[in-house]
Specification:
Elements (H helix, E strand, L loop, with lengths): L1 H22 L33 E9 L5 E9 L8 E7 L9 H11 L3 E5 L17 H17 L3 E11 L1 H12 L5 E5 L4 H7 L21 H21 L7 H4 L12 H10 L10 H4 L8 H4 L14 E6 L5 H10 L5 E6 L17 H11 L2
Length: 381
Amino acid sequence: MKNQAKKSFLKTAAAAAVALTLSGPALADVSITPMKGVQTMQLTQEWDKIFPRSNKVEHHKVTFKNRYGITLVGDLYVPKNIRSGQKLPAIAVAGAFGAVKEQSSGLYAQAMAERGFVTLAFDGSFTGESGGEPRNIASPKINTEDFSAAVDFLGLQNFVNREQIGILGICGWSGMALNAAVGDTRIKAVATSTMYDMTRVMANGYEINMKQNAQGGYDRAPAQTAEARYQAKQGMNTQRWADAENGTPSHGSPDNHLPSQDKLTTDTPQFVREYSGFYKTQRGYHPRSVNSNGAWSQTTPLAFINMPILQRAGELKAPALIVHGEKAHSRYFSEDAFKSLGSQNKELYIVPGANHTDLYDNTRGKIPFDKFEQFFKANLH
């Protein structure tokens, strides 16, 4: 009799457990809220990323527009375990400068979605699958706005908490991310990885010696002089006459922009070799990437030279995480930007032994995804 009672109890307990499971919050059927007024775009539907697809997240191709009416294209990544009615924190990701969402930004976005965030990797205006004419041109103002447009789109989604949206910029998009976070108070946390300040480098040139020092890093060097900058502007403004006559901007040759592997010489700086080793090889090549298969318009720097995007960095209030490689030629951008940030909650995190492109992908296991996860989970609340 005791055994029968025991079996009855176990059967009842098992049934109760099943009932409890079935009555718990159901997995959400993710439904994307479209943004009104976007241009109809012909989008690539196949998985053409440089990284494998995760089985832990849903992937959706999406379109949205910025304040200037340019339609942007992004990849939205949503954790598969999201529950019905749940509102998750979200992160918009872009970069590197001259890259597309199928490269570094998509890798970062998918990895952060695996860790519980809704993420959006997007192509900036005039590049990749996004709209804007002419092609392969950049603007510090419009590209900063692109981040805020991504925040607009994320905030429309009923599975995103509008009060928990952050952004992450890679390489040249890091400066744009910090700039966006200064101006857009909806951005609750900002992180950067392997940062460039594109306005600074286009105005001053590289403020480093081109050859690595004995420690594998790069010594600082004086910035470009005002006279050298004037000469560069003269050349670009002369090019404007040719562009006006031709009716379209000149972009130059891809190898002049970034040499392919067979064009490297003994005089090629090590960091240029690293760029080529990513963008021009199977490791990171993508046909829509400016750096892989194209060049910026020759007059692109004109918009950057007179516009220091971090001039209000001291007014940043959002928490900030600045990540850079120890051996990167670009490390000084992060170190100097970090000093200028007004955030009370800020951290400079140097990745041991990493160069600039080590943080583009995880070939050498250098991207500190745990660090990014901890930062955003602590500050998107």
